[in-house]
Amino acid sequence: MPILEAKDLTYTYSIGSPFEKTAVDHINLQIEQGEFVGIIGHTGSGKSTLMQMMNGLLKPTAGTVLLDGKDIWEKDADRRSVRFQVGLVFQYPEYQLFEETVYKDIAFGPKNMGLDEKEIDRRVRETAEAVGLREELLEKAPYALSGGQKRRVAIAGVMAMEPRVLILDEPTAGLDPKGRTKILSQLREYHKRTGCTVMLVSHSMEDVAKYVSRLLVLSHAKVVCYDTPANVFARGDELEKMGLALPQITRVFRLLRDRGITFPDEVYTVNYGAELLRARLEGRAPQC
Amino acid sequence: MESLIKIDNVRFSYQNTEEPEKQTEVLKGISLEFEHGELVAVLGHNGSGKSTMAKLLNAILLPTEGTVTVAGMDTKDEDKLLDIRQHVGMVFQNPDNQIVATIVEEDVAFGLENLGVPTDEMRARVDQALHAVGMYEFREHAPHQLSGGQKQRVAIAGIIAMRPDCIVLDEPTAMLDPQGRKEVMRTIRLLNRDYGITVILITHEMDEAAQCDRVIVIDHGTVHMDAPPEKVFSHVQEMRELGLDVPQPTELCDLLRQAGYDLDPEIMTPEAAADAIAKLMQSANK
What is the ipTM of this complex? Predict the structure, then answer.
């Protein structure tokens, strides 16, 4: 049974007004436990609306969201518990820090869950470490931190609830390359260590290609495909028509194909591409 | 001819918020010149001092030591402030923070109104600016109905309506999706090529820097590199150590070079990489 499921899920903003707009249109989707999902789509494709329905923040106009097979909007459903189980990190979450210290900010979620001091302390320290915040920062005021550090505090705050599904809406937006790699590799570690399901909304094809196990592509409020990165990038022309940029490495290999040099699989990471080429040049089988 | 902007041995310190008696030195002696018509990218990790450098270019900040000269005017000269800002306009990261009016064309006219430009001329300049960024058809729209990329183009139009010699853009695409990025980059290149406007682009996107003529790398408040993009990106290891990156085609060729294959270290585009690799494959098959 999938951990999260969307059935005919629909959301329409401003119903009955001239600005009525269907942001999510009859989406069907099954997310399996332990998956690392990347979500891509142009602005207005419905990514953020879909994610906000997945943890019960927005109530669907039609259709259902199932967590462990149970409709989260059922009359007797415990939506508070749903939000602890499906944690959502918004875009630019660093603007949402409000406590006096970093420690208190990370502890806010676990505290609301009614956990005891000892458990809260363990979670704060563990997640702070997971996102690379040094111990001495915990007693600092959030405003004294750099932008990248603040963002990691916000992510830690959601991780500390130990949700079974962690959703992040563009966690790397506006960061420099080093900051991006840092957050993404920490997420990968977190995913490996906890085995929880991670859903990552991103505009960067290069980033999602490197880290995720499955890719969800949205366009005009509908699902275009939900598949492995290799299968998704194999439909490159279609993606480009939707205004999504292919990773540059994929473009190199598409151009090589035009020049008569073909490989059976689509290439979407640089290391894999380099290994394929070396193997071909050395007349051996690739080691990947 | 003298350069458009000259930064001469500039240092800049911020007051430390926690310990006011302490100063944090962000720029540690920078000297740079920008010529008319250049298309320049400025790279550097967060906190390297690149945004501070940008704000010195039109007197939003003044150097603690050294001088910044714009078209022969010292930015410390308060009487010249308006003049300096008419020469060098600035576009920021967040499009929502820069739009002041409720109609696109009124927003573009805002700067001109403040300059007291006559109505007829204002009309002509606003129309021309909107054409230049490809937003003329949207002139009567409300800004909130526009996409991020479109809003950013409106912000750019507001600047070019004032006919500056130079536009400084501080991470203008950071909050945009790939489509919006493409639109803004296309607009920037066009303004540079067809209107001869000097563009200084602060960015974290290596592929955007690759589209410029000159790349300046700022690290710890000093100029670390200043060269054409293909030269800058050929230093793959060094760029990594600076917390930056290189375009993927450059990285691919670098990995192959490390394995002993002869490839040009200055390859940046997918096309150039594909050509070079195809040639390598052909000669290997002989």
Answer: 0.82
